[in-house]
Amino acid sequence: MPSSPRASVVIVARNEEANIGRAIRSVLDQDVDDIEIVVVDDNSDDDTGAAAASFAGVRVEENPGVGMADGLVHGLAVARSDSIVKVDADDWHLPGSIEKLLAPLEADPAVAVVGGSARSVDEAGRELDLHMSVPTSDHMALVAMVNCPIEHTACAFRRSAVLEVGGYRRVDGVDIIEDYDLWLRLLDAGMTFVGLTDLVAVHVISPTTVTNRRRQAGVDRGRSLRTDFRQRHAPTLCTYRRISELGSSVISWRDEPERSDRFAFVLIRLAHLSVGDREYRRAASVFAATVRCGPFSVARGVVRTALARRRRRQARGWMSASAVVEFVRGK
């Protein structure tokens, strides 16, 4: 029986004939030996499967179900390695990304998930957003109370850990938030997460992607998952020490406004969750240092942002980083 490869790269693709080659090449160009690429063709109407199979060594599987969640279940079942790297069919990985993602998994058997940072672009390549990962499981859990803590196309994980919590699944029939649902269950189970600030992938957002076509269908269910997670963990996680540690990790990015601004919204929402806690004022001073404004402005920003985010949204459904900072600073 052949030995297991160092890692299995799993790509689920539907009608991605035009893009699948770019995703596969970004993996083949990595300076990493002994990896396999498994492409699960999700009932494509075009020649996605044939395009993927044209690359030597790429294994193409047919999705026995329908949709991303079913495709990932099958991909994990047929993968030969316990170390899984997830790549979206219309995205691509940057040079050195897979080595960076695998290193924490191989250095510590307790690590279950590694999340890197990713840049979002539109179909024309214009930059839309920057998803920054945070260092530890506690940080991930805090971010998860506000947003999905890991960009799905920029992660690696242990298959055994994922299967231990039930694997990928549809959430009330919604085939879009399978990643958020999985991260929350892994955090609930006390699994160890590691975050990398390194950019490892580019994520394409377009009106034709499955994610955008079904985004609205997943909004309500995602909100419900987030609310349930908050109820379970906010009392122990939304403390001055834990939130200020997250704030301190962002302060190190102060010379990189794009990174620090991206987290202004997360920090403000966490401040909002901790309103009423006697330590809120001390936590607010940490947030103030992060976004370079006074504690009063942060408190005001909580209210202003809550109202404004319903009106000003960007492609990913969140208020833009620049708009957050603008409102926090009271401009």
Automatic annotation (TrEMBL):
<protein>
    <submittedName>
        <fullName>Glycosyl transferase family 2</fullName>
    </submittedName>
</protein>
<keyword id="KW-0808">Transferase</keyword>
<dbReference type="GO" id="GO:0016757">
    <property type="term" value="F:glycosyltransferase activity"/>
</dbReference>
<dbReference type="InterPro" id="IPR001173">
    <property type="entry name" value="Glyco_trans_2-like"/>
</dbReference>
<dbReference type="Pfam" id="PF00535">
    <property type="entry name" value="Glycos_transf_2"/>
</dbReference>
<comment type="similarity">
    <text>Belongs to the glycosyltransferase 2 family.</text>
</comment>
<dbReference type="InterPro" id="IPR029044">
    <property type="entry name" value="Nucleotide-diphossugar_trans"/>
</dbReference>
<keyword id="KW-0328">Glycosyltransferase</keyword>
<feature type="domain" description="Glycosyltransferase 2-like">
    <location>
        <begin position="8"/>
        <end position="164"/>
    </location>
</feature>
<dbReference type="InterPro" id="IPR050834">
    <property type="entry name" value="Glycosyltransf_2"/>
</dbReference>
